[in-house]
Each structure stands twice: as structure tokens, then as C-alpha cells.
Amino acid sequence: MGSRRSNPSVKPGQKNPIDSNTIRSSSLRDYTTRLPLDPLSVLASPTGRYNRSEGIAATATAVRTILSLSPRSLFIQAPQIEELRGYPLKESAELSAALQAPNIRFVSMIPAMWARMPDKSTLTRWYFSPDRHPTDAWAEVFADEVSKWMIANAPL
Q1: Rg of the chain over CA atoms, in angstroms?
Q2: Beta bridge mates, 127
Q3: How many CA atoms lie less than 13 Å away from 65 in the CB half-sphere?
Q4: Is the pTM higher than 0.70?
Q5: Could you tell me if 92 and 83 are in contact, meaning their C-beta atoms sit under 8 angstroms apart?
Q6: Boundaries of every domain in the chain
């Protein structure tokens, strides 16, 4: 019998429809076969599908496709921990060079994030160690800075 704690709407004696024991792999396959994309075909990693030059070429193609569908698109750069430490990333420079076009609008949030960083110890709250993924605290500050930028630069 399923636990009521995981689903408070389940009445005593009733089976919990979201209990992990009731989920079978065949029912999961019903959902996953309907996905339009193969997740492995869209992931890039150092040991994954793309090397750096292929990844940059794939990104450039994706950006051109986005712009063909929505010419007023805006691309906002979320800074990596290295960039906030003051070390420019080679990958960012390579991508910028591959995407040079007059109709591409990039906005770097590095200056805004630097302004919100009282000292370098802030980075330990903004990024997980050792994988360097952003934390919720980083996301909150980043979203705030993006919204401020969007409001300040909204067309009248």
C-alpha cells in the first residue's frame, strides 16, 4: 500500500498512484517514446558527443536558426565562475568570434554580477564546489540583474 505522506490526497486504504512501487518501466516508456528529441543528441560535454570546435559550430547553427525564426532574439551570457574571478574563458571568445553578425544581440551579465559581489568569497555561495554549477543564490541574483536590464532596456 502506498504511503500517505508522499501524497496527502490519498485516503486511508487507498493505493497511492504516485508511489514508486506502482510505477513500472513500461509505463515510463510510454512517456519517453513521445519525446521529440533524443537527449543524448543535444548534450555536449568534454567526453560527450561534441569536441570544442564541433560544439561551437553547432551553437552557431542553433543561433542562426533562432534568429531566422525570431530576428529580435536576445542572447544573455550567464557568467561562469572563472569569468567572475577575472579570467576570460577561451570558449566564450571562440563562440563570440564564430557568431559575429550585425543582427546578433548579446548581453554580458558579468559587469552586473561583479557589482553584486562584495568580495570573492561570494563565489563560494554562488557556485557549488567542485563541479562549479551555479547555486540557487546565484540564480536569484542573476534573475534579478536580468530583469533590471530588461526593464531598463525595454522598447518604449
Answers
A1: 22
A2: 134
A3: 6
A4: no
A5: yes
A6: 45-152
Helix 90-98 and helix 52-69: axis angle, to 10°? 50
Element containing residue 105 per DSSP (H, E): strand 105-108
- Give the pLDDT confidence score for residue 57 in this predicted structure: 83
CA dihedral 19, 25, 29, 30 (to 10 degrees): -50
Q: Are 117 and 84 in contact (CB under 8 A)?
A: yes
Residue 114 vs residues 136, 150, 154: alpha-carbon distances, Å: 17, 18, 23
The residue type at 73: S
The yes-or-no verdict on residue 28 having pLDDT over 70 is no
What is the per-residue pLDDT across 63-120, written as a single tens digit (0 to 9) for each? Answer: 888 888 888 888 888 888 888 888 887 777 777 777 776 677 888 899 999 999 988 8
Cβ–Cβ < 8 Å for 86, 119? no
**pLDDT (average), residues 13-35:** 49
More confident residue, 43 or 60: 60
